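Readers of this paper often ask what the protein records in our data store actually look like. An entry from our holdings is shown next, in its original layout:
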Amino acid sequence: MNKLLEFGRKALFYARVLSGYEEWKIRSFRLQLEKHLQQAQERKAAVNKIPEQIILSEVRRMVEEMQALNKKLEETEAVIEEHFKPIDKEAEIIMKMQLEGEEKTMEQMVKAMHQQALLENAEAEKIASVQQVEESQTNQNPEASTTTPKDAEMR
């Protein structure tokens, strides 16, 4: 009986092979395996991309935070500049006043030096004229020739 069952199984197998049923079953199984393999590869690629995506999203987030921080910094700088504008204007006014005061004192010093130079020149001219007068007197009075210009200055 076993031989008969064995013979029946083989006959049925041959009938399926000849009809193309087994070939269709093998193809569908192969297609099913290929689909399963492709899905596994896609899942693997997705899993491999996850760290890259996490890193990229983290980098994007950090860039956005830095841009926001830069914007806040610029706003803060603008507020600080606005706050210090009156102080800067006052400092500029004070500097101008100091420069004007220094210019006035320099002008006064120049005038004073000029007047001093004129006085010294006038005094030098007086001394020179006095010496000329004394020389002319000594030339007229030979006995007074023993006096020196130092003596004339002492007189």
Remarks:
- The helical segments are 2-19, 21-140, 149-154.
